[in-house]
């Protein structure tokens, strides 16, 4: 049953059958800018504490600008999707599993065929940006290009310090109450993300070597004032993917779609426009 406080939007749900890598999953999703008809699809991959509702109206506004349809969904453990069981810990390679298994399975259930996937763009923020990079590397023939916003490709001290501070805020301030508007099981969502990022084993996580497999168009965006990652993240992307375009935004933190939406939308629209010529 949908919690009316969780989202201002009406969501649909996709049922993913159990596989060797996961049990049956109920995935919350929403189409935006459906008036675009048979236009290419932009798939939005949310941050570590994100969900369908937490994107607010940015995907709709961007898709209208791009002339695309948009698919927004909540990963398992977030929003109104199947919650993470509280005793279950995300594995170190949890983002790879999302790109390799969950996302293609969702496309299959939603009848997004290979022809549509070849025209598709993946747009990911933070953890979602990392998943977008992994999807582009694992499925090079199943997309037109990727846009990654404040992605992580290795773990920095800054990231761990900020995530530890966020845990303190969650447990001592009204942050938990605020996040509960976006997740049906807010503790499941928060601790699934927080626990893995603060796990000592996760300090060794990195996807730098995987980047070389990315062949399609790639735009990487980072804010100069991001407290969850430094410019080393997208600079390394530029080194490993020479055809990637990098955009560095002034007066912008970890969430460019909230901190600097006009500059971000302009950069994405200009980049995608050039790929269509």
UniProtKB/TrEMBL annotation:
SUPFAM superfamilies: alpha/beta-Hydrolases
Lineage: Bacteria, Pseudomonadati, Pseudomonadota, Betaproteobacteria, Burkholderiales
UniProt keyword annotations, A-Z: Hydrolase
Membrane-spanning segments: none
Organism: Paraburkholderia phytofirmans OLGA172
GO MF term set: hydrolase activity
Entries under InterPro entries matching the protein: AB_hydrolase_1 (IPR000073), AB_hydrolase_fold (IPR029058)
Domain AB hydrolase-1: 43-267
Protein name as catalogued: Alpha/beta hydrolase
Superkingdom of the source species: Bacteria
């Amino acid at each position: 049953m949908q919690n009316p406080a969780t989202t201002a939007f009406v969501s649909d749900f996709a049922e993913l059958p159990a596989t060797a890598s996961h049990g049956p999953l109920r995935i919350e999703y929403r189409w935006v800018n459906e008036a675009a008809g048979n236009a290419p699809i932009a798939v939005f991959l949310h941050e570590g504490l994100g969900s369908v509702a937490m994107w607010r109206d940015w995907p709709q506004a961007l898709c209208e600008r791009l002339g695309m349809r948009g698919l927004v969904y909540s990963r398992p453990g977030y929003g109104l999707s199947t919650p993470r069981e509280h005793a279950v810990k995300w594995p170190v390679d949890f983002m790879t599993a999302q790109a390799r298994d969950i996302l293609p399975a969702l496309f299959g259930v939603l009848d997004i065929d290979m022809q549509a996937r070849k025209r598709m763009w993946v747009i990911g923020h933070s953890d979602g940006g990392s998943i977008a990079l992994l999807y582009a590397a694992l499925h090079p023939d199943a997309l037109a290009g990727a846009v990654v916003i404040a992605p992580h490709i290795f773990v920095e001290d800054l990231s761990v310090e900020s995530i530890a501070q966020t845990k303190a805020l969650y447990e001592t301030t009204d942050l938990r109450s605020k996040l509960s508007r976006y997740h049906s099981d807010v503790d499941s969502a928060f601790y699934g993300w927080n626990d893995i990022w603060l796990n000592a084993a996760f300090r060794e996580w990195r996807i730098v070597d995987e980047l070389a497999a990315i062949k399609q168009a790639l735009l990487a965006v980072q804010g100069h004032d991001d407290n969850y990652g430094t410019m080393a993240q997208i600079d390394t992307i530029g080194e490993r993917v020479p055809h990637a375009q990098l955009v560095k935004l002034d007066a912008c933190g970890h969430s460019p779609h909230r901190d600097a939406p006009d500059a971000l939308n302009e950069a994405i629209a200009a980049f995608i426009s050039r790929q269509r010529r």
